[in-house]
Design goal:
The structure is a single chain. This protein has one domain: SH3 type barrels (Roll), CATH 2.30.30. It has a three-stranded antiparallel β-sheet, with no helix packed on it. The protein has a three-stranded antiparallel β-sheet with strand order 3-4-5, with no helix packed on it. The chain has a two-stranded antiparallel ribbon with strand order 7-8. By secondary structure, it is mostly beta strands. The protein is built from no helices and eight strands.
């Protein structure tokens, strides 16, 4: 990919509501998320040769109470991401 190449999503992003321990709810738009160590990582899958992921957000798992959203299941090239409706 060159610096001037457009970023193109492989599909529409899905809404995720992430409730935090301080009673704040973050609304994120991503294709899915994975848990990497002690961090929830929300990602979007982009068109390319091959397709690739970009990170939307990294949130420490210790401050997350609940993650709601997604639809169906999303598979990433690096991690299997499961989105529970």
């Amino acid at each position: 990919m060159t610096d001037d190449a457009p970023l193109i999503l492989t599909a529409e992003l899905v809404q995720w509501d992430v409730s935090l321990t301080n009673e704040v709810t973050l609304r994120l738009f991503a294709h899915g998320y994975s848990i990497e160590g002690d961090t929830h990582v929300f990602t979007a899958l982009m068109e390319g040769q091959p397709c690739y992921e970009i990170e939307i957000a990294r949130i420490p798992s210790e401050i997350i109470v609940r993650v709601r959203g997604g639809r169906g299941a999303t598979i990433s090239r690096k991690t299997h991401l499961l989105a529970l409706p």
